[in-house]
Design a protein that fits this description.
The protein is mainly alpha-helical and 475 residues long. Helix content is 42%, strand content 6%. The protein has a three-stranded mixed β-sheet with strand order 3-2-4. Helix 2 packs antiparallel against helix 4. The protein starts with 8 loop residues before the first strand and ends in a 20-residue tail after the last helix.
Length: 475
């Protein structure tokens, strides 16, 4: 939630000239003109260009986050953003625009920041850094960094962390509403129902009275109707079991709030744990999230191809990683460089995605049903169907949470299972015991359900070649 999984740049944006609840005027302006106004109001044109560019990227991303999340429309307002700096960013209707700022905005207005592996534009909050401070970018601090020789990306990573990336040349289109236009009820089916079911499952983690929908099928069945009725009762909506506009946008608002998508640190809407664009080049010595994704994909391939070596997921492109890349290139008749260029990345991704689609995901929700806690603490040395199910759940979760290891399903609670459980407990803030009591079991089940739900609506990476009449494959 929301179902618009490919962020875009709106042609126009509607700005409320005051705090959200005030009786102020709305103005609708072209998005580039809005950013030019914000930048001219927020920063100085005499600053170093790298500081100006960094600030404009933050302003673009913040505004796009508001549009993408339908932050204000989901609360019943008829605008996309305000000009109140207590809530959003400054916009002075009718003001003059600085020439150099206008030029820069024209060049980059459809570029934005996001966390690696996440869908939504980063809620790139910022403050002036003198009279006010915040967790995000310091405007005057960015100028100081620029004077020290930092470029715009280095400035952004200084404040927002290394796990960000710039999306360039995003599509430009009219503002899109996530609501499908007609109410959804028992018998409805399709992607919008998937969205409802997935969102209700996530909201139910914070509102346990809402029953979980399992499996998520994309068909509005009796279980979905019951979950909708409960949701409507909790939030004082008409309890008709039908998702009309009011229920849809209440669900949007709750989902955005719970997952903190409008915050700097959020759960994030994941692209099945993988970024959706090719890196320019990855080679020995590189580090970061993209290297982790590369190592994870190669590790999955190693489970299926004997001549593909296993490697540890460290986030560092080391000699072991280079050897794995060389083996992959050799096995697939690619030039053996040990460097991951777009061609090598695309082929690794294609084979990884093929395994996920044809082996790991088909009928996963029905073939591995979510089971109730078995009534006994699972620990090292135990064996049986409950251990088998636990191992299956953890392996499915590991497809999205790449910090978790993939390991053989044996039905025996062995050392690899202990380590997988311990890693899960570390990632999700549980006591690290290596044992599975009722609390840990239920947490794993909830994560498993969310992962299964999310995979049905996850977007894909561009396959790297043109699709036309007669093309055939999973893409």
């Amino acid at each position: 939630m929301p179902p618009i999984v490919t962020p875009y740049v709106p042609e126009y944006i509607t700005v409320h000239l005051g705090p959200p609840a005030s009786n102020a005027q709305n103005v609708t302006v072209a998005f580039p003109e809005y950013i030019k106004n914000v930048a001219s109001s927020e920063i100085y044109p005499t600053w170093e260009e790298s500081a100006i560019v960094a600030n404009i990227y933050a302003q673009i991303s913040f505004a796009l986050n508001r549009v993408y999340l339908e932050y204000y429309p989901s609360q019943g307002y008829n605008f996309n953003i305000t000009n109140s700096t207590a809530y959003d960013q400054s916009f002075q209707n009718g003001r003059n625009i600085f020439e150099n700022i206008s030029r820069i905005v024209d060049e980059i207005f459809n570029n934005y920041i996001r966390r690696v592996g996440f869908a939504e534009p980063l809620a790139a909050k910022y403050c002036n850094g003198t009279t006010t401070t915040c967790e995000g970018l310091s405007q005057w601090g960015s100028q100081n960094l620029a004077e020290q020789g930092y470029n715009s990306v280095q400035i952004l990573r200084y404040y927002y962390g290394d796990n960000i990336e710039l999306v360039q040349d995003a599509p430009v289109m009219g503002v899109r509403s996530s609501y499908p236009g007609t109410p959804l009820r028992v018998g409805s089916s399709g992607p919008d129902v998937f969205i409802i079911q997935t969102s209700l499952n996530r909201v139910s983690q914070d509102y346990p009275l809402i029953p979980k929908i399992n499996p998520v099928t994309g068909t509005f069945d009796e279980a979905t109707e019951n979950a909708v009725r409960t949701f409507q009762g909790i939030f004082n909506l008409a309890q008709d079991g039908i998702v009309g506009k009011a229920t849809w946008y209440k669900l949007v608002m709750l989902y955005v709030g719970i997952t903190k998508l409008a915050e700097l640190e959020s759960e994030g809407q994941r692209y099945f744990g993988l970024p959706l664009e090719y890196p320019e080049s990855l080679s020995e010595g590189d580090t970061g999230e993209t290297i982790r994704y590369l190592q994870f994909m190669l590790s999955v391939l190693a489970e299926f191809y004997q001549n593909q070596p296993f490697l540890n997921i460290t986030g560092t492109f080391d000699a072991q990683t280079k050897n794995a890349v060389l083996s992959f290139q050799r096995n697939n008749q690619l030039t053996e460089t040990g460097i991951v260029d777009p061609t090598t990345w695309g082929e690794i991704y294609r084979q990884y995605r093929g395994i996920v689609d044809t082996v790991l995901l088909p009928n996963i929700a029905s073939s591995i049903p979510a089971q109730a806690y078995p009534g006994v603490v699972l620990s090292a040395g135990l064996s049986g169907p409950s251990v088998t199910a636990l191992q299956q759940y953890l392996n499915v979760i590991a497809l999205t949470y790449t910090d978790l290891p993939l390991f053989p399903v044996t039905g025996t609670f062995d050392e690899q299972t202990v380590q997988a459980v311990r890693r899960y407990q570390e990632l999700f803030g549980l006591a690290v015991t290596g044992q599975v009591d009722e609390t840990v079991w239920n947490a794993i089940i909830n994560t498993y359900k969310d992962v299964v739900s999310a995979t049905t609506t996850s977007p894909r990476q561009y396959p790297g070649y043109t699709l036309s009449m007669g093309s055939r494959d999973t893409a």
